[in-house]
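Lab notebook: predicted structure, single chain.

Context: the supervisor wants predicted structures on file for every construct in the current expression panel, including those that have not yet been purified. This is the next one on the list. No modifications to the sequence; it matches the entry in the shared construct table.
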Amino acid sequence: MRDPYDILGVKRTATHDDIKKAYRKLAKELHPDRNQGDAKIAERFKEVSAAYGIVGDEKQRGRFDRGEIDAQGNERAPFGFGAGGPRSRPGAGAGGGGGRRFHFEDQEGFDDDIFADFFRANRGGGPRSGGRGNDRKYNLAVAFLDAARGAKRRVTLGDGRTLDISIPAGIVEGQSIRLKNQGDPGVGGGQRGDALIEISIEPHAFFTRKGDDIHVEVPVNLREAVLGGKITVPTIDGPVALTVPRRANSGTTLRLKGRGVTKRGEAAERGDQYVKLKVVLPAQPDAALEKFVEGWSGGDEDPRAGMEVE
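Prediction complete. Output recorded below exactly as produced.
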């Protein structure tokens, strides 16, 4: 792979924020969801994501800058390996000293364990397990009802892979779903990191959520407000019947028990839905209604009494 700095279009002296900004810009432009069917852009997206996995992590960036890992995150061989290498102790090569551990004298920054690992690798035993890969963070916008009821969604990860994930019922804004071993590969054969999918919830046209309860404002006409009766109201599970009491005012709030969101940690228990009534007049002028109100004695009552400010 090319130099990660070149791939991201930043200098080696770039700050962490500059690197992050460059990556986000490229990832947005190259994301597979915006370039479906374009294999070249998909490959470029993978390359950018891999580059950010190296220099976007301060620890990995430091190791890359010091030459400890290559542009793909693989461990580099130590300098001077092999018989007669620079500054090696006589007889300490691959066949010397009856299999003694390889050692560099006065080689600052290296220790015996590193070279023991390389000896194991050359004997066919493979390197010792390396470090765990970085976690990757993603943001996923989900519809209000999907968050409330639960749903299946397909996500595209930074390396172009797609996964079907379950959105649990009742998930809240900012909560993350952890996908084990779906992050960056580990270094030297280490375990992969995880993918963390942070959820943002899109607003609904008329539902709002407070904790595990759902709130909705429902209009009622004048007849329903004065005489009461059965009306149909929406819930996150579909329409249900609700009884409006006689002489219901705007602001009257009725409760539908168990029609809210499934409570986290509770398999069966749910919150409630609160229905706030709003009295509305007919959309078109009604001469009979106007005539009635003109002769109605109750029309002289002041509904704003008590709102005076001293």
